[in-house]
Specification:
Elements lengths: L2 H7 L2 H31 L4 H16 L2 H11 L1 H18 L6 H27 L6 H27 L3 H22 L3 H4 L1 H24 L2 H17 L5 H8 L4 H28 L3 H14 L18 H29 L4 H28 L7 H33 L5
Helix pairs in contact: 2-7, 2-8, 3-6, 4-5, 4-6, 4-10, 4-16, 5-6, 5-8, 6-16, 7-13, 7-15, 11-15, 11-16, 11-17, 12-13, 13-15, 14-15, 14-17, 16-17
Length: about 425
């Protein structure tokens, strides 16, 4: 079954959701990669102020995922997606007034908070479809998002050449448009599940938010998995952090960074879905998670040898090898990680589980950038220290996930073989 056949097998609501995943990343990557340059070069803001603004945006998204997950479980995923879309559109439009500091910070807050609202809700929504396996569903989501991430900067650059104001307005349009789509055009999926969700929602509200949080905190297997997967997120950001740092240190050109990012995106777009289907035929999802994360770490081995080529096609060989191995690692791990969260949630407060998971992800992103930054600063000790750290992170995360998997299997077997107490 091809990716297109699988797409058209989905119900209309999920086809719209996949289109939304594409245009959301398209709109986001139209504007955000160029925001810092505009604030610094055109508005002449200080680097400190620009850094704080971007930090506020990231914190309001990563730090408030739990809030978004809780609200989605209390009031329904669709409402949170619609509200998030409207807030993101408003936030992007407010960047038109970036010369006013208060409005600039408001735009950064709304842009980040919007992501915190609709991301856990969307993940929970995707996990509930029943046509494809959850891993296949999330592989389609990955394809859609990578497509938007690939085309977004290209479209943003073209619009920026016209004006920053046009860029803000156009990048806001996909979010405003899909707020209308989610409200009017998507079939009433939640009405079809009204009785189930009403029972779950009423019980959640009776117990309150505390009961929902307590339910997640009592799910020890989920918490262990989330903690281990912080290592995955320590690695996932390094293509856009460690690699550009390395290229700058090697007096490389900006197009070298673009080459790596483009190659990663293209591989994911064309191979993600068939790779996921292939993986499902052999081994278990948890095994593929370990294999994928190990590959992500091992990919940095390609930068340790002293390659003799300083120009020409062969100059791109180590970066290309890294991009291929790293992307294969993400392809065989990402869909199974996302599906594993909903599996561990056992269909209870699924969005809240995703919200909690993204808290660990945020910790991993910050820790990964910090570790690599320190390693680059200590390159006088060993010029490859950053790559050794990333290789170690990948391998130790894979080992911990394997140990977690075996301990969970032993617990299941002990519960199965324990005598009945009826």
């Amino acid at each position: 079954m091809s990716i297109f056949t699988s797409y058209f097998k989905l119900t209309a609501e999920y086809r719209w959701m996949l289109i939304a995943a594409f245009v959301f990343n398209l709109g986001f990557y139209m504007l955000i990669p160029f925001l810092a340059g505009y604030l610094k070069q055109d508005l002449l803001l200080s680097a400190t102020l620009v850094g704080v603004v971007l930090g506020v945006r990231s914190f309001c998204q990563q730090g408030l995922f739990l809030v978004g997950g809780l609200l989605a479980d209390l009031f329904g995923e669709k409402k949170l997606i619609v509200i998030g879309c409207l807030l993101r559109a408003l936030g992007f439009c407010l960047f038109l007034f970036s010369d006013v500091t208060a409005i600039l910070f408001l735009a950064a807050f709304l842009t980040g908070f919007a992501g915190a609202l609709f991301t856990p809700a969307a993940q929970a929504y995707f996990s509930k479809q029943q046509v494809l396996s959850r891993a296949q569903m999330f592989s389609l989501v990955g394809v859609a998002r990578n497509g938007g991430e690939l085309l977004g900067p290209v479209c943003g650059l073209l619009l920026l050449n016209i004006s920053f104001d046009i860029l803000c307005i156009v990048s806001a349009l996909p979010f405003a448009m899909f707020a209308v789509v989610f409200t009017l055009l998507i079939p009433q999926h939640q009405k079809q599940q009204q009785s189930d969700q009403a029972n779950e929602s009423s019980s959640s509200k009776q117990g309150g938010v505390k009961a929902m949080v307590a339910g997640v905190l009592s799910n020890r297997e989920f918490l262990k998995f989330s903690a281990v997967m912080a290592g995955y997120f320590m690695l996932i950001n390094q293509i856009s952090f460690a690699i550009p740092m390395h290229i700058v240190n090697q007096q490389g050109a900006p197009q070298d960074v673009a080459w790596v990012l483009t190659l990663c995106a293209l591989i994911s777009i064309f191979l993600q879905f068939p790779v996921t289907k292939l993986c499902e035929r052999w081994l278990s999802p948890k095994q593929w998670i370990s294999i994928g994360i190990a590959l992500m770490g091992v990919s940095f081995l390609t930068l340790i040898p002293s390659w003799p080529y300083s120009q020409g096609v062969l100059y791109y060989l180590p970066l290309s090898l890294l991009a291929v191995i790293f992307t294969v690692g993400t392809m065989v791990s990402f869909p199974f990680i996302m599906s594993q969260i909903s599996e561990l949630a056992k269909d209870k407060s699924v969005a809240t589980h995703y919200g909690f998971f993204y808290l660990f992800a945020g910790v991993g992103l910050i820790a990964g950038s910090s570790v690599v930054g320190v390693a680059f600063d200590l390159s006088n000790i060993n010029e490859h220290l950053a790559w050794y750290c990333l290789i170690f992170i990948g391998l130790i995360t894979a080992i911990l996930n394997t140990l977690l998997m075996s301990s969970a299997t032993q617990e299941d077997e002990s519960q199965t073989t324990s005598p009945s107490t009826h």
